[in-house]
């Protein structure tokens, strides 16, 4: 519980907690992390099923706890924002094991793909919300009734670019220190990998009023993959 903290502020704490918990395991041991994510998702769905079935004696406590974090955009009996948050972090880690990446991007590209959820939700969405609420003055007009600002979008873009670049670069250095199989990558290439995905994801976040815990990480993931193969074609 965070007395006196708005619901949105509590949500950002959970986003930051996801970054702290999942970033290093997603880099150092992505296969086990993907397996753990699948187990956690099964558990979350089971808990929601118990809540929907109104099973005594846990139904009341579960409902009271989850209702504190109910997103205003959710409609219907299901409470899914926490499941979507976990799925948004998990899906890129699971999917990153699948594509065959070009030479020079085998390690860095897979790290960037794996961290798409943590970058877009845990960092970008959180900083956009915090800065937008605290310092937002220039509101965006496309979505009536929302209070998303240019300052929030800029904070989301910069935070995603910086965190994505540093986490990818340092992740490669960490893996490289464990053995010679890792191909090193320059800081400039890491910036190129994250700059456009961060910019377009920040624009998407500020121009939509949908529940973005799921589609924003997949959007960022797709843009990272596109950027990697675009660089391969240009080279």
Could you characterize what this model shows?
With 235 residues, the protein is mainly α. 70% of the residues lie in helices and 0% in strands. The protein is built from 9 helices and no strands. α5 (106-114) packs across α7 and α6 (116-135) packs antiparallel against α7. The protein is globular, with a radius of gyration of 19 Å.
**Gyration radius, in Å:** 19 Å
Structural shape: globular
Number of helices: 9
Helix content: over 70%
Low-confidence stretches: 1-7
What is the CA–CA distance across the termini? 52 Å
Number of strands: 0
Largest sheet: none
Measured by DSSP, the beta-strand proportion falls in under 5%
Helix/strand-derived class?
mainly alpha
Residue-averaged pLDDT: 82
The secondary-structure element order is HHHHHHHHH
Topology:
Layout: H1 7-28, H2 30-52, H3 59-67, H4 81-95, H5 106-114, H6 116-135, H7 150-176, H8 187-206, H9 215-234
Please give a handful of descriptors for the protein shown:
235 residues, globular, disordered N terminus
Describe this structure in a few short sentences.
The chain has 235 residues and is an all-alpha fold. It is built from nine helices and no strands. The protein has helices at residues 7-28, 30-52, 59-67, 81-95, 106-114, 116-135, 150-176, 187-206, 215-234.
């Amino acid at each position: 519980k965070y007395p006196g903290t708005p619901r949105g502020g509590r949500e950002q704490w959970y986003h930051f907690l996801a970054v702290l918990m999942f970033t290093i395991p997603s880099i150092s041991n992505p296969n086990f992390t993907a397996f753990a994510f699948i187990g956690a998702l099964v558990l979350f769905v089971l808990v929601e099923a118990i809540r929907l079935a109104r099973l005594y004696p846990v139904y009341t406590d579960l409902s009271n706890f989850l209702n504190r974090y109910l997103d205003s955009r959710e409609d219907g009996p299901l409470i899914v924002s926490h499941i979507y948050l976990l799925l948004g972090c998990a899906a890129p880690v699971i999917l990153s094991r699948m594509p065959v990446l070009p030479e020079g991007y085998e390690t860095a590209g897979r790290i960037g793909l794996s961290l798409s959820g943590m970058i877009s939700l845990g960092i970008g969405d959180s900083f956009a919300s915090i800065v937008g609420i605290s310092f937002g003055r220039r509101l965006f007009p496309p979505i009536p009734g929302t209070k998303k600002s240019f300052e929030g979008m800029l904070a989301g873009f910069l935070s995603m670019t910086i965190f994505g670049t540093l986490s990818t670069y340092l992740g490669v250095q960490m893996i490289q220190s464990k053995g010679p199989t890792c191909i090193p990558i320059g800081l400039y290439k890491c910036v190129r990998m994250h700059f456009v995905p961060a910019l377009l994801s920040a624009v998407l976040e500020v121009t939509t009023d949908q529940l973005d815990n799921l589609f924003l990480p997949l959007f960022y993931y797709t843009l990272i993959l596109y950027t990697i193969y675009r660089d391969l074609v240009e080279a």
